[in-house]
User: Fold these one by one.
Assistant:
Number 1:
Amino acid sequence: MKNQTTSRDFELLSAYLDNQLGSQERAYLESRLIADPELQKEFHEISNTRLLLRSIPKMRAPRNYYITAKDTKTARTHGFQRLAPAYGIVSAVATILLVILIFGDRLVSSTSPVALAPASVAPITSVAVQKEVDRSVVSTSSPTEAAPLMMVEAPAIASTASPTAEILAEGGEIATPTTIYLNALPPAATPEITISIMNNQAITATISCDGSMGSEPYPTNRYACPLSTNTPSEFLQGIPPTSTSTAAESPTPTITSTLTHTLPSTSTPTTIPSSTPTITSVPTETPALVKNTAPESMVVGPTPPAPSDQMMDTANPTLPVPETAETPGNHPNFDFLQYLILTIELSLAAIAIIAGIIAILLRIRAGR
Amino acid sequence: MDEIALIQAAKRGDLDSFNRLVLVYQDMIYSQAFRMIGEEESADDASQTAFISAYNHLSSFRGGSFKAWLLRIVTNACYDELRRRKRRPTVPLEPLDDTGEEVESPRWMVDPAEQPEDRIQRLELQRAIQHCLDRLPDEFRSTVVMVDIQGLDYSEASQAIGKPIGTIKSRLARARLRLRDCLNGFAELLPSSFRLG
């Protein structure tokens, strides 16, 4: 019977040659070597191979490998080259962060229209006002939807010199966007006329008049008692005089900038554009507040001619200036954020490029 | 000055002490590198790199066999060189015969100044051994060179390679078996006293 030599047998033979076996393993292997001629042959071949390897003459170094101080500096340089993978990783991470920052910014911008339009602040105020209207007015007809129509129609109304602003008092059907600006007025600034849209049940603007307004030259009872008619000319005849200090000298009613041109006392067509035919008494003590509530239509509207009467003179100070329509502080904050993001992007791009170039150069030098 | 004192002085930055150690071990280091790589120039570079690395990392030597520690460094340097060669293979210098096989002993490689028969036979045998060593896996080659050529025992080989003694035993047995099979193909080159089989 012929036993096949296994890898375990070769390990025993190799260790036996090097005298690395224990007493038991040695006795076991010697007994097998006596009984198995095939294993004995393998043993001789492995032994000859080992002797052949050990017969190789010793080699001598071709030179002396003395170390100098220059060699140690070179070794440090080679150590620096080992940092090539680290530079590569830094470059890759910076690139990924840059891509995330760029596309993440675009993603956020696409979901946030306010962030998309940093230059135009008017939409921001419109959105804010619309939110206010949504809170204060419960109506089946959305006032925010009607707003653009009024904004377009306002200049045309003014050009016909016939006030056509329709303000439906209690029981009205449509809550015009004019209430947006009325709501923004300070509540204490309307001693004679108060137009409020806060009444959710009325849906539309509620016009309440002071009792003293009855003595004013302009009929005011139409405001105090909402008319059933829808004719703006009739309705606007009841515009009360202003409550400002100028009102005492000339009982010209002070109307918000958006409705001043619709006053019947002006024979000439008022070309002041207004998207919000709002009727209100704006105290001159608070021109800034009125300016803040100025509609954005003033920005896009035609340049109004000089008013021809005193009423327009008193109304002019309340005209909103386009620049005042901007929310204070919005631009600086946005610019800072924009510059910050831009700075981070540029820094990441610089890091990615520089680290990538260093990694490539180090790998090129290491390959030489 | 003994070896330990030289090592301690070299750790303190004494370059001369380290160079005295270099003189002691440079033949062994070069021999290990040559048997591992099989080329003189690369073995020379690997030996120089190994000594520079040893000096720069001398603080990591915690005692034990300084020879085994040096052999480990030069073996790692040889591994790096072999990996670099695998990435960028080189064309062998040996010419090819009509069948495309390498001519192991080309006529132009024979030194005309050495004509004695025994020297030729010795050179042929060395080439045959190196040829078979080159065909071993790297880990097998490093093990068999350390034990059978450099004369390290299992414990020192285990320290130099960084593997347990059982692994050394296994690698050594398999390496010797492969070498035996390879050298059987060069039976005509082997002296009669070393004929296998």
Number 2:
Amino acid sequence: MRLVEALGVVLPHLRDELVIHANGFITRESYALVDRRLNFYMLGSMGLASSIGLGLALAQPRRRVLVFDGDGNLLMNLGSLAMTAALQPVNFLHLCFDNGVYASTGNQRTISTQVRLEALAAAAGYVAAARVTTPEDLERTFCDWLPLSGPRFLLVRIEPDGEERPLPRVAHAPDVMAAQFRAACAREP
Amino acid sequence: MTAAEFVARLRAAQFDFFTGVPCSLIKGVIAELEAQRDYYPETREDAALGLAAGAYLGGKQPVVIMQNSGFGVSVNALSSLHLLYRLPCLLLITWRGFPGEADAPEHIIMGRACVSLMDDVGLAHRQPDADSIEADLHWASAVIREQGAPAALLLRKGVVK
């Protein structure tokens, strides 16, 4: 399963969820598939997708917040697993698309093949944490978990793409996108 | 100004989300916020900034507390998130290693560099003293509301009790 297939499984099930996208190919692949107005696309600040999602979940307790994280992003900010577990936001679903590499910089390996990130999330105190490797398991677990109380952590093991995969960059001006996302949050779900 | 008075002024300025990493110079403010059960102790200063960015997107007006050592950790978050996307927050940054005052060796270099680093990344900042803290807080609120930019108050020992 590649990132585009994994997102293709998840995205059709989204309705009014707020989704924070980690920078790099997670942002670019999702943006290329479906540019939702309830998507926030990180461009820089690598590592902070989960922290941004947590802050959003605390500020918007009546909305479901998803984080589309990556292994490289999460390894840069493991403290956020502890922070999320400590605060126990029930409206928080954390997906980590784990391809085992820093894809945007040329597929250099991360250490995610040696460290089970879902075990770290479970040990920190997420109410549920699991790993899926097939589109069928991804769809089943995602659909089961989407309505349930969190915080939950789903590691989606994917294959790295080739380095030549052409993907558009997000065309929205960052400040305009942020203002529109904030305004969308302010409207009733 | 006492910590309780300062927190009351933060609330009057409609700040309503508080996180950070502590410093002894601002322990009174953190204790006051904790007593009000309205403070999220973060693990790192840049993670606190991420938390604040998410809270702002969700409709809050965040405050992030840190020591200037943590400002070093925060430069990428500020430059590629808050300043890039115009996600404002109030930064209360304590000033260890203030030039000319004796302090622990680990604070000397950042104490000397932090002001020019803030200038270099374009982070609006002021350095209040006890007489100007109220006016400087108003200034920071105006930067946040009118420019949509983060603003920092660089706090020396004793400015907030």
Number 3:
Amino acid sequence: MFLTPEIITLSILNLLFVVFATIAFINSLKIVLKYDANATSSYQYALEKKSYLSATIIKFIFYVKIPLFIFFVYTLDDLSNILPGAMCAAGVVSATSYGTPLLFLKILNLYVFAFWIVLNDEDMKYEDQPYLKQKFLLFCVAYFLLIAEIIVESFMFNGMDINSVVDCCGAIFSTTSATYLAEILSLSPKILLSIFYGVFILLVLFYFLKNRYIYAVLNIVFVLIALITLIAFFGTYIYEQPTHHCPFCLLQRDYNYIGYFLYIILFVGTFFGFVIGIIDFQAKELRKRFNISLLYNTIYVALVTYYPIAYYLKNGVWL
Amino acid sequence: MIKLENVSKIYGKNIKALQDISLKFAEGELIILKGVSGSGKSTILSLIAGLSKPTFGEVIVDGKKISKLPDHFAASYRRDNIGIVFQKYNLIPELSVQENVLLPLFPLNLPREDMRQKAKKVLEMFSIEHKSSLMVRNLSGGEQQRVAISRANINDPKIILADEPTANLDEKLSREFIEILRELKSKNRTIVVATHDPLFFELDFVDKIVNIEHGKLL
Amino acid sequence: MNKINFYLLEYAYSYIVRHKNKNIFIVTVFTLLVALLSTLFFITSSLQYELKERISNQSDIVIQNYKAGMPAAIDTALLDKLLEIEGITAGKLEVKGKYYFSQKKSTFYLLGVDAFEMQDDPLIVKLLDQYDLSDSEMLVSKNVKDVMNQAYYKEYFNFIKPDGSLQKVTIKAAFDVGNRVELKNLIIMSKDTLRKIFGYSANKGSDIALSVANKNELDFISSKIRLLLPNAKVTSKDDLLLEYDRLFDYDSGVFLSLFVIALFTFFIIIYDKANGLSSEEKREIGILKAIGWCVEDVLHAKFYEASLLSFFAFTLGIAIAFVYVFVFKAPLLGAIFTHENMLDIQNFQLNVHIELSYILLIFLLSVPVYIAATLIPSWRVATLDADEVMR
């Protein structure tokens, strides 16, 4: 175990999260079990007050988590300078068995907390607060996810050994090794791209049809195929190297930090697309969210498409 | 317009501020709640304003049950329908007249011009517009009273509530205040005044006097 | 996320100004914390940067012989063996070391040079172009010349050899090190003369320096050398970079404990201060709620209040640290860092070198902690029962 200032910062903020999330959790539990909208005892009024505390804590955690996540990714990238063999965050993530689940958990939690906030805003619009118990029940689940994330993060940082060599992304994302990843990556780009653009066209179609359920499902598919094609195809054009498949090197300065933009745009677009499938928004809100989702998804598609086209125009050939 | 149905308010375990009160006020009426301090009249005002919730019973204003509203709905109900005049004005001395008057609307984030117009209109109504940029701290007692009343009227509320409004005023200012109430009544506002100032009991435009003692109607 | 509500912002600002004393205290504590943290990071990152810059003038791989766990003279015969390793383009036997001049309590850094040898350091190259050194002459830095002058050595200097006898060397010229403050105490002379001073026999030196063609292979070649010479200490540029990255030992329990204690104290102070509300403050919140603000509106205003205070204090803290470290060159505190690591703060320029990631780091350590400390107090305030105001 070794400590850099970055790891210390992450740990301190995680501790803060644990303390406050636990307070919110206890309150949420009380509300889920005991809240009665029709009762008028002072206990019920106290519970109503506590619901504000929990909501404020959850919002606080979410809004700090966003820059913290970007900082976390930056830390991973920075650690690649210290861990032998690692050239970018990919090596750091694969250094322990916790890396990939942690990344997955972190992104999942961002989605879950964002969803909670959207649900809360919607709930507050109605006098009868239709989602009151649901949202706090959701938080009870989110609480355990958050604790899991923090525990896994401690294990990961604890388990890093600066003396053992780790793989670099060239090895992890190669198409020649016998992993599932390699199998996906070696699929013909034609197939992958057809799925990618096909799903996007369906997205546009169902946007105009305003069918929110199918649109939401399509968004889930879209985020998956987008990530796959980014690694398998588009990334290689950003790096201008046919064998460079790493999704983390995009985050480095050498490529103008384009990775941050791509991922943020992709996540925002698909988040809003997903959320409209679950919550029944009023017409104006629904339209707004549909628009944001399609806009961001379109920007993402435009950005990733730019790279291979620009390469072709510059060089006359494909990779 | 305003209905209290079998309302009781109990603080803690034993403090019975109100016991099984039922009241009905019609629109445009001026009602005096008469009773000594601690009799429960302030509690009635607070219930009508939606600032507190009854332990038993129902408060219905303009057909709407306000007792079970969640906090932010109660607050916007209050902002849109109720104007409150306090015993001690409760203005913020370091802010200007205009800012004090617009304070209830701050959270709405309306365009500046709209805010300015609303402030102007209400300050003109109570003849204090010429002092709108002065700090409240620098105004006389009578002027502060008019600012407080302006603030209560910023949103054209249907109901005005006043809690011991003349307790800190001399007779001249008290009479001025009563004239303002007369004017408001002529605009069809429903006005409920909690007071034990005898000046109110002889007025010709009072519609009802409600006597309260120890949380019960007499 | 909604638009910024400027009315609430103005209200928050006026609220802060109306409660000056409490808020000045809070801003002071916060600024102090940020200034302390920033000073720490500015000093360490600047020092690290400077150290790494210096490495660029050194050889790719340096090999020292160790006997009984301590550095010992190395034989030139090893050089031939090493030059056989693939990837190594050039190598030389170096003679250099420190000389402690007890009379003036100064340590000189002696470097031996040969007439036709390739030098890595541009300053040395320039000096050797300028001056021809015979065996009995040396070049000294201006600082060394001053020290020697004070001991009445004006034209020459007598080095004391290990056997007690003296070695007289004439001072040919004194040179200016410019901004290379780490070379402040440098003396350059011929290798043979230096050997005599250090008591090295003719074919021995202090270490062997190697150049490598492909810088990416430094680690690989180093490991080859370690296999070849198990008793030697092999240090590559990459090893040095790594060492410097971890130079300021955040691992040590002391540092971490101080850190955590400081933050914890900060949290407690803010929490306590935020919790203490005068009856007037409670009244004001009661009024706000009576005139139509809901709990969320009050929380919103409180959030603006916390943001204004923390952003202001944060900026102020960074500015103070910046001036302290880079303008005044960190008197007092800077020495703590360098002495811990046996460096001499006087030898560093502390040029402005700030990484944005450190600013983000300091921000993440201070502002969220502050806002967290105000969360519960703000909530308590916002959920006060307003019906007391009616009295």
